[in-house]
Amino acid sequence: MTAPADVLAAAAARGWTLGVAESLTGGMVSAALVDVPGASAVLRGAVVAYATDLKASLLDVDAGLLAARGAVDPDVALAMADGVRRAVRSDVGLATTGVAGPDPQDGHPPGLVYVAVATPEGRHVRRIDVDGDRPAVRARALAGVLDLALEACGGTPQWRAAH
Amino acid sequence: MTAPADVLAAAAARGWTLGVAESLTGGMVSAALVDVPGASAVLRGAVVAYATDLKASLLDVDAGLLAARGAVDPDVALAMADGVRRAVRSDVGLATTGVAGPDPQDGHPPGLVYVAVATPEGRHVRRIDVDGDRPAVRARALAGVLDLALEACGGTPQWRAAH
Fold first, then answer.
1. pLDDT digits (tens, 9 = 90+) for B11-51
2. Nearest to A37 among B45, B87, B134 (CB)
3. CA distance A110 to A90
4. pTM of this prediction exceeds 0.80
5. Dihedrals φ, ψ of B26, to 5°?
6. Which residues of A touch B57 (CB under 8 A)?
7. Pairing of strands A18-22, A92-98
8. Which terminus, N or C, of chain B has the lesser number of Cβ atoms within 10 Å?
9. What is the predicted ipTM?
């Protein structure tokens, strides 16, 4: 798994600050970043929009989109990443949404997760399908959004070579 | 330590929903509550206002108070608890602010923590002094705000007897 410290270092190298919008991870992503000494120079804050209506009111996700697709959707994930950039005034927004289980949500099976990252240079979203229980689904969502953030901040040789 | 499940159960027994405003805990409190199956019926969301200016913009903490006292202050903790009730439209607000260390902040030593809880019935704040490293300070802040929330939701016999 990408280390939270590597994400902070990659963002700092670009002169970028971070914000986090969390649904199923519920604060885990932000807490993992805050654990790193010096995080306060890069991480501005986070919004845990656990209730669906907060995705609209706090993160400015289009209410029509939420009504049409539900909260577990790639465009909702992207809108959450955009929204937290505005809400916490950060350069980069990380977002997680998905079904932790054990019950389905909005017609989606447990284990379906979307992670998204928005930077000044682009917007990225990735689908992750997890076969596991609630803690496993959340852990994979955390790892997935850190991986994507590191790539989007240019922190991996693979990413740099491809762009 | 008070179990997150007990806080959720005590709030649910009152018909109250929860919101969390976090500074030094950075999402840990929210994540601990989300870990409990069924949390979505009680927990609405959280705001991690790690950067001080976000305490004003996202939680409506008075900017003059923040300028005069800094972020590590009992009245700031209470204002964060009030503010998150409004931000996430919850009945109860939990808040943490403090100095995780290793460096002092705003003239306060590492280990100074304030936790606050606002409910429809009252506002409560508690000072905690922790002798320990960053993880220890955060862990005590988490435990302290859960303890105070359980008491404020009437979840302990001691609290019920005293009120």
1. 999 999 999 999 999 999 999 999 998 899 999 999 999 99
2. B134
3. 31
4. yes
5. 60, 20
6. 89
7. parallel
8. C
9. 0.93
